[in-house]
Amino acid sequence: MSYEEDDYLFISGIQHYAFCPRQWALIHIEAQWNENYLTTSGKILHVKAHDGDSVEKRGDIIIFRALKVCSVELGISGECDIVEFRKADNGISINGCDGLWVPYPVEYKRGKTKVDDCDRLQLCAQAVCLEEMLCTEIGSGALFYGEPRRRELVDFTPKLKTKLTDTVKSMHEMFSRKHTPNAEKGKRCQSCSIKELCLPRLGEKGKASVRRYMEAHLE
Ligand code: SF4
């Protein structure tokens, strides 16, 4: 399977879809977005990650910032915060640099490490793009979380890659139908950046009505 460039979906949307398909649909299909403290602090962290030269060499590591990536097979594109190329015998060559280098993507995130795979899937998507573009294999990468200011190692296991493929396939399917699923109220709604747009209470069984919709908006 291969996708045309016009059909590529944003890699950054994968974490939205994994968090809640309705959230992703509201943002990426209906183009609705609500900026809040959490999304703004996340953006600041990314700007900091991109601060400095776009390419930098530190000993046996070459650091590329804001590297654009895509996958024809998955139909996704985006930008990596940081890709470290680490010197290793099983790596690939880089124009103008001696030796062989293994890519190691690093994604910056606000907050703490999560139980779910939302962030890991996004990082894995970057790795799969790099593998396809550079004809190589990438075993692992890292998520840098703003609160503990620490890296979490992520192994790109076959299980995580299969989950990524299934997730992206569902996203393409939903996008081609321009379908926004109904709200399913849950714990995640409390930390959702677009809960005021979504109004998840309206999706509660037996509670959807015009009166309830008007009441929620007037509130
Ligand atoms: S409020 Fe809840 S149901 Fe609505 S988009 Fe956010 S997480 Fe999904």
What is the structural class?
A: alpha/beta
Tell me the number of strands.
7
Shape: elongated
Radius of gyration: 19 Å
- Enumerate the spans where pLDDT stays under 50 for 5 or more consecutive residues: none
State the name of the first-level CATH class: Alpha Beta
Looking at the structure, the CATH topology is: Lambda Exonuclease, Chain A
Short description:
This protein is of the alpha/beta class. It contains 7 helices and 7 strands, in the order E-H-H-H-E-E-E-E-H-E-E-H-H-H.
List key phrases describing it:
single chain; alpha/beta; binds iron/sulfur cluster; 7 strands; seven-stranded mixed beta sheet; Lambda Exonuclease, Chain A; 219 residues; 7 helices
Account of the protein in words:
With 219 residues, this protein is of the alpha/beta class. The chain has a single domain, classed as Lambda Exonuclease, Chain A, CATH 3.90.320.10. It is 37% helix and 28% strand. It has seven helices and seven strands, in the order βαααββββαββααα. Strands 1, 2, 3, 4, 5, 6 and 7 form a seven-stranded mixed β-sheet that branches. A hairpin with a 4-residue loop joins strand 3 and strand 4. Helix 1 runs antiparallel to helix 4. The chain starts with 8 loop residues before the first strand and ends with a helix.
